[in-house]
Design brief:
This protein has 122 residues and is mostly helical. Helix content is 71%, strand content 0%. The chain is built from five helices and no strands.
């Protein structure tokens, strides 16, 4: 079995993040203006989204599994943000938008996990 290469993971991760950016941009284009006005300041003041919660090493020093842990931890934080915001949304359009973003993030995280798992097959 070949050693997993962090460089291959970064290529997969960048494609994944580009797809999320495209989807979010489409949500922004289609969303109700009031829905886009939703504030996450309260959440972020109590639960700031952080990188490197799973280690203190710079990315360049991490191996494949270390990079995976950092990236998936970051996505878990985004999912928690969306879940919290869905629970607090009072305006139906806002709740619908946040539920869509939550579903998108969950699906994209699963897709990234599948792609990373396929790297074992190489």
């Amino acid at each position: 079995m070949r050693k997993k290469e962090p460089g291959r993971f970064w290529t997969t991760w960048q494609a994944h993040e580009s797809e999320i950016e495209r989807i979010v941009n489409e949500f922004e284009r289609q969303a109700d203006t009031n829905a886009l006005e939703t504030r996450v300041y309260d959440y972020l003041s109590h639960h700031p989204i952080k990188t490197h919660r799973t280690c203190d090493e710079p990315y360049a020093k991490l191996d494949f599994n270390g990079i995976c842990r950092v990236v998936f931890d970051f996505h878990d934080q985004i999912i928690d943000l969306y879940q919290t915001m869905v629970g607090k949304a009072e305006i139906p359009e806002v709740r619908e938008l946040l539920e869509s973003l939550l579903t998108m993030e969950q699906n994209e995280s699963k897709r990234l996990a599948r792609q990373v798992g396929r790297m074992d097959d190489l």
